[in-house]
Amino acid sequence: MRVWGGLQLVLWVLLVFCIPVQAANFKVEGISGDLKKNLELYLSVYGTSSAASIRPHQIQTALDGALNPYGYYQATAQVDRVDDHTLTLQVQQGEPVIIQYSVISISGAAKTDADFVELLQNSTIEVGEILNHDSYDQLKSQLTSLALKKGYFDFRFDSSMLEVIPNRHQANIHIAFNSGQRYRFGDITIVQSQIGEERVLNLAPFQAGEYFNQDKLAEYQMRLFDTQWFSNVTAIANWQQANSRHEAPIEVNVTAASKNIVQVGEATRQITVYEGP
Fold this sequence. Notes:
- This protein has 7 helices and 11 strands.
- The protein has about 280 residues and is an alpha/beta fold.
- It is elongated, with a radius of gyration of 31 Å.
């Protein structure tokens, strides 16, 4: 009987630990659109926990993480347990944070660049609007991408500040972007090509001394690849080796395409044939 009793205890313990815990379900009410979707995403972290195990501070952490980026820093939620597996959140998003102060400036050669001027004109960051972190991050990313595309390789942010004062429902933004000088295309160097160098150089859609533009460099790479002379083509601007006129040498690395395979005795030998027009 003692053995059987011990087995009963072991079986009972195993049964308890083998019963799966049903994941919590959340019903979010009081908000909609992106706010609701983002909160549901944050709450999904607790999807493997039971409803009974979820604590108020976890709900508040999810609220802050989901709604702060949209300018709501004082959101609260009334939490009701519908059953053992379901929690209903009645969300009060609270008063939004409003942009009180915004100064965005560009210095350096890009100050009069039409593309940068247009970028700032199209920015969604405006005084009096609800703060949106994505708009701030997106503008910084766009400034960086445009600088790299147009050859402002020495760019930097002299200031990049997003200040939020939740108890005043205010936000202040200051971005000072310094583009530095714009680089130019330098001389082209062809590496590993057995095609006539002049043929390769003539395909370039730019001249040395022109302002750098990543689209033109990409077009040059595509033109070389489309000739089918090469199986691999890469073209890069070595701006760190630029001269005093900010002319960045262009290095083109190519691998010649293999055109024919012929039989030699019992073995197969690959013969590389370099063909041009």
